[in-house]
Write a structure and sequence with these properties.
The chain has 492 residues and is mainly α. β1 and β2 form a beta hairpin. The protein contains 21 helices and two strands. The protein has a domain of 219 residues. A two-stranded antiparallel sheet has the order 1-2. The chain is 76% helix and 1% strand.
């Protein structure tokens, strides 16, 4: 049964270990000739491994067989675990492929980076199923250590080195805070298991609530750092901007899926017994994160920094949904999370697949400044149109996908009579529309200067995928009920 339940994680572990050994074997004979070739081969094989892992994760018999606990209830495998793990792997496949394209076009031959990202994926899969603070801490650390290396993977770039160092130092403080909070909670209650803590806290007769709140605050602060929420958000713009573009995409997309799922389990097992504290804490943090992200993006001139602040504002929306605590709000949070991930991936895919050339320069350049967005329309008008739809979706313009996800959060706020929060969310969306429309202005209405219009013809496979992203985004109204009902079945 153990092997049956952990089939995906075990398969990934063995497959990535084999790919590491295989990559070393390929580069052993002649580093100069085989280095880039081996990176291409490992990149393709990694994508195939993920596709097979997704097939394993979608085992219907396993999903319908109920809940399973392992390692003394350190891990739980239920409908939520299977669903979020499958979503995580599904978005990892094109993300890994974008990384492969980037390394191929920029002549980076470090095949080990695919393996590192693979083990980060394993950590995220384990975090989704964690039901114990020790297993969660180990999963978070494995994920974080992998991303520290990936952030600084371009050793010739001072920005990348700075991003990796800054992320490592600040991430180390966050890990220390998390471990300190866990040790405090263990000292006060004698347990780190969610199930045992749930039983102990439900009685609530032997513990000083102030001490419990202190421990929970430390733990929550560390998780908020990992998802770049206020007041632990300052690392995100610098790290996003300094990291290579596909690594930035993975920062923005993949960890949120696992960490928000873990935050839900944290709430369901522990914070459920302190609803007033949960509501107060996440209302303050959610509103602050939303406003910081919204207003911080207005003044940005570099595209990855702007998308970092955009991510922060959307995290604020998610945390505001968490603050409600109702079943409707929690379901809306996961719908929002999945659609945000989909739209954000589409944006990074368009940016990745539309590089350009400066005049008198043969080196391929990926878009870094918002003014360089103007090259996309001249190189690929269809990609520019789809990118504009994705920006409008993030702004919450109907009838695009982002509108319905924000609408579901607003309905849950109104249903809980939290009218002030609903008004703040609406006003924030209006402000955010300013900088998204500004990006569209650069896309269509300004002519590039000192730039060639030569199209960089890379990744023909994705030229078919991106229009599908645009179609799904535009006609999301027909899929909204299906996705909402699917999320609802998970929480039954």
């Amino acid at each position: 049964m153990f092997l049956f339940i952990f089939n995906t994680e075990l398969f990934f572990s063995l497959a990535f270990l084999f790919l590491l050994i295989f990559g070393i074997f390929l580069t052993h004979f002649n580093k100069n000739n085989y280095r880039f070739w081996s990176a291409n081969v490992i990149g393709i094989l990694t994508t195939l491994v993920l596709i097979f892992g997704l097939i394993l994760s979608l085992n219907i018999n396993l999903i319908e067989s109920g809940e399973f606990y392992f390692f003394d209830q350190g891990f739980i495998f239920d409908k939520l675990s299977y669903f979020m793990r499958s979503i995580l792997i599904l978005f990892s496949i094109p993300t890994f492929y974008l990384l492969h394209i980037f390394f191929k076009e920029t002549k980076i031959g470090e095949f080990e980076l695919f393996i590192i990202m693979g083990y980060a994926l394993i950590a995220m899969c384990l975090l989704i199923s964690s039901l114990d603070f020790i297993t969660a801490y180990l999963a978070i650390e494995l994920q974080s250590l992998s991303f520290y290396i990936l952030a600084s993977s371009r050793r010739t770039s001072s920005l990348s080195t700075e991003a990796g160092l800054k992320y490592f130092i600040l991430g180390g403080f966050a890990s220390a805070i998390l471990l300190f909070g866990i040790s405090l909670l263990y000292g006060f209650t004698g347990s780190v298991e969610f199930s045992a803590l749930s039983i102990l806290l439900s009685e609530n007769t032997y513990f000083d609530n102030t001490s419990i709140f202190l421990a929970l605050t430390f733990i929550t602060s560390a998780i908020l750092f990992k998802i770049s929420a206020f007041p632990f958000h300052s690392w995100a713009p610098d790290v996003y901007d300094g990291s290579p573009l596909p690594i930035t995409a993975s920062f923005s997309i993949l960890p949120k899926l696992s960490l928000i799922t873990f935050l839900y389990r944290f709430y369901e097992s522990i914070f459920l017994f302190f609803p007033e504290y949960w509501n107060f804490l996440f209302t303050i943090i959610g509103v602050s994160t939303l406003l910081i992200g919204t207003f911080g993006a207005i003044y940005q001139t570099r595209i990855k920094r702007l998308l970092a602040y955009s991510t922060i504002s959307h995290v604020g929306f998610i945390l505001i949904g968490f603050s409600v605590g109702s079943q409707m709000a929690l379901e809306s949070v996961f719908v929002y999370l999945i659609i945000y991930t989909f739209v954000n991936f589409g944006i990074f895919a368009v940016l990745m697949l539309n590089p350009f050339f400066y005049k008198n320069d043969s080196d391929l350049t990926f878009i870094t400044d918002v003014e360089e967005l103007r090259t996309i329309f001249f190189n690929n008008p269809l990609a520019a149109a789809i990118l504009s739809l994705l920006f409008l979706s993030l702004a919450g313009v109907p009838p695009l996908a982002g509108f319905f996800t924000k609408y579901s959060i607003l309905i849950s706020l109104i249903d809980s009579k939290m009218y002030n929060l609903a008004i703040i969310c609406v006003l924030s969306s209006v402000v955010s529309a300013f900088y998204y429309l500004r990006l569209i202005k650069f896309l269509f209405f300004l002519k590039p200067e000192n730039l060639t219009y030569k199209k960089a013809n890379i990744a023909p496979f994705f030229s078919y995928i991106i229009p599908l992203i645009g179609v799904f985004n535009f006609f999301f109204i027909f899929f909204f009920d299906i996705i909402s009902d699917l999320i609802g079945l998970i929480f039954v």
